[in-house]
Amino acid sequence: MNRWLKSGAPWIWLTAGAVSLSLIVVLGLLLLIGWKGLGYFWPAPVYQFEIEQNGHQSTVIGEVYERKTVPVKQLTEAGINTTGFDGDPVFRFVIKTGNRDVLGSDFVTILGPHIVSQEPAAGVAVIERLKNGRFYGFPIRLIEDGVEIPLEELEHSLEKANSVRDLISQIEQSDLVELNQQFEQLNAKALQHEAPSQLIGERQLLEQRFVHIEQQLLTLHQQLSRDRLIVREMTGQEITLPLEQILDLWYPNDFTTAGKLGHWLSQLGHFVSDDPREANTEGGVFPAIFGTVFMVLLMSVIVTPLGVMAAVYLHEYAGKSIFTKLIRVAVINLAGVPSIVYGVFGLGFFVYIVGAQIDDLFFADQLPAPTFGTPGILWSALTLAILTLPVVIVSTEEGLARIPTSIRHGSLALGATQAETLWRTVLPMASPAIMTGLILAVARAAGEVAPLMLVGVVKMAPSLPIDGQFPYLHLDRKFMHLGYHIYDVGFQSPNVEAARPLVYATSFLLVTVIVGLNLTAIGIRNHLREKFRSLEQ
Length: 537
Known about the structure:
Blueprint: H1 2-6, H2 9-38, E1 47-53, E2 56-70, H3 72-77, E3 90-96, H4 100-103, E4 107-111, E5 115-120, E6 125-129, E7 135-144, E8 147-149, H5 154-191, H6 196-225, E9 228-232, E10 238-242, E11 246-250, H7 257-273, E12 276-277, E13 282-283, H8 286-317, H9 322-334, H10 339-362, H11 377-402, H12 405-413, H13 418-445, H14 452-455, H15 482-491, H16 496-536
Helix pairs in contact: 2-16, 5-6, 8-11, 8-13, 10-11, 11-13, 12-13, 13-16, 15-16
């Protein structure tokens, strides 16, 4: 036994068991997040419940959102009449009824003993709206241009409404934005005291174009407002829904398995490609995906050369002095600084000092409105670059230390300078280690939220950092981030219960984005490792 313990085998098995357990826990967590998040987009059946409670009968239509068991004693203590309840505990159903603007809430709680009957609601439709969430009801009439038409034309009418809505969005995000920029340029010229007569003519042309665009938008909105769908909800009340507010409509109880799969893929595609709505509790997360990936790529472009240059100096040029030792201690300590401290530093230095100086030098005509002297994606990338810099430095130094000295000496003996040796031989061979540092930096930076809340991330960004307007790349703009989106939806949402599945879906998407970025970097690293393996040998 003592020989077995001294051999180290128990510690090998203990380590392997700990690693295996950690992997199982991580995979289990990812499966749980994926199941709860991706399952939100699956078309659940809609039931019709006949309820009898305290002698009153009512009808509830909706999806079974949650089912739990509750002890009768707990219900009695809560003041609920439990007379006639058979069995202990009883089921408590949370039914998602939608129709928030009519019923005042998205959910209804029902106790199992109060349910007289439960069956799939025949002919019920689930309607996705721009505002007030989903609507559950029975379509009964379709009115187009003031004339009632058959319900069979509903799909065609919705396609036409979606086309008009897309045209309105294109005009607002393209023509109006361009016109607004031209007005700002005209105001800048006025501040520079250019010829007033020429400016008056230009302003009149811009105002005429604005009136034309405004009239075009008004016509399109009036065209949409004339088309309406009459729907009967579960209380029997008839509700009029303008088609301009309807994004999608489906009959979940009529779906086949293939139809459910197609609808699930469609909803998942909308979640990834659409903009958020209703205080981030509805719609998609495309701006957050774009902001996360773009910020990480920008951070990578900044931190990689800085980290490599610092590592090259420390390993190749700096001697073993007290100053060098202090630098190494500082690098190690920087890796342990809380991320929120970096956020405060970024806000104070990058935004209020560097950004303010840039505004004074290049954007003085737009002051006191700041351009770069306010949080933006550039300052966020720089802040995270400083945060992840120690990781890149340490990883690059380790890669440089693994390169045999004989390779350096051979290069110098052939007449190459030290700089040429570094650039043509040492750094290419150390590139796998550099990529390892970048992988670790990306993994940490993509999930950071606290510093970004101070230096650029916002709940809702009106436009992306990249668009079709000059100069095309707008590093001064604020942006959305998947990590902050999770925090906002999970803790700041006005309707937390309805938005809870989106927290799981966005969390799974964030993990997927990080894994995708890391796999890309790992692929590049493996390619470089194979390329320079012969030289290392």
